[in-house]
Amino acid sequence: MRERIRNLSNRAEFFLIISICFAYYICTSLIGLLLRIRTYEMTTGRLLRGITTELAILLLAGWILHVRGWRLSRLSKRFSWPGFLGGFPLFVGYMLLYWTVGIALVLFYPDASHLSGMRMVPRAPVALMVVFIVVNSVFEEVTVSGYVITALSEQGAALAITASTLLRLLYHLYQGPIASISILPLGLLFGAVYWRWRNLWPLGVAHTIVNLTVLALAAHQAGT
């Protein structure tokens, strides 16, 4: 098994890792979109399954890449406080970009304000939801930013960042048409930042803050 993995071409490795990391989520996302599912209940069981699944995928993909000679240092710089704190201005930059794109879309397409998105309904303990958010943020940025952009880096920034952004959009399609407002700017911004600094810490922190903000809004709406 190890020998077969070592002998894979770079292209075969890429499609294998992409399939392991994203095939399940893209399929379930498309099903959710087609069935027009607009409510996601964050129950204890669902979150535990989500955490377990993402950790298992990371372990499997990580083992394959380790056999192939990849090391964490290839994906990201080591932890540093500047890198960690860089997630906060990145979050602010994303929110400014999000609202700019959102306002422009509504100006040119007024009906966009009526498009419904996924409604999150918190049902699990707060601590578990926070753990899920952190694991999910790490999972996404390590795979769709770290691996995809690094693996495609020889093809140039435009292709690597675009591929990363489109993958990110595909597994978020279940959120509905309005998701493009948030996913596309986030993917392009995060991809550009990662390409420039090759540091996952700012992305992970900013992504976590974004998800925590969404959770807080969902909790507020559920309370009202």
Condensed summary:
By secondary structure, the protein is mainly alpha-helical.
| Helix vs. strand class | mainly alpha
Average pLDDT works out at 92
Radius of gyration: 18 Å
Question: Any idea how many domains?
Answer: 1
What is the number of beta strands? 2
Give helix % range.
over 70%
H/E element sequence? HHEHHHHEHHHH
The rough form would be described as globular
The share of residues in extended strands comes to: under 5%
Please count the helical segments: 10
Strand order, biggest sheet?
1-2
Question: Which regions have little confidence, pLDDT < 50, spanning 5+ residues?
Answer: none
Largest sheet: 2 strands, parallel
Could you tell me how far the N terminus lies from the C terminus, measured between alpha carbons in angstroms? 55 Å
Keywords:
single chain, 224 residues, mainly alpha, two-stranded parallel sheet, 10 helices, 2 strands
How would you sum up this structure, described in words?
This protein has 224 residues and is mostly helical. It has one domain (2-72, 80-223). The protein contains 10 helices and 2 strands, in the order ααβααααβαααα. The protein has helices at 2-6, 10-34, 44-67, 72-75, 81-85, 87-108, 126-151, 157-170, 179-197, 200-223, and strands at residues 39-42, 119-122. Strands 1-2 form a two-stranded parallel sheet. α3 runs parallel beside α7 (126-151) and α6 packs antiparallel against α9 (179-197). The longest helix has 26 residues, at 126-151. It is globular.
What layout of secondary structure does this protein have?
Elements (H helix, E strand, L loop, with lengths): L1 H5 L3 H25 L4 E4 L1 H24 L4 H4 L5 H5 L1 H22 L10 E4 L3 H26 L5 H14 L8 H19 L2 H24 L1
Parallel strand pairs: 1-2
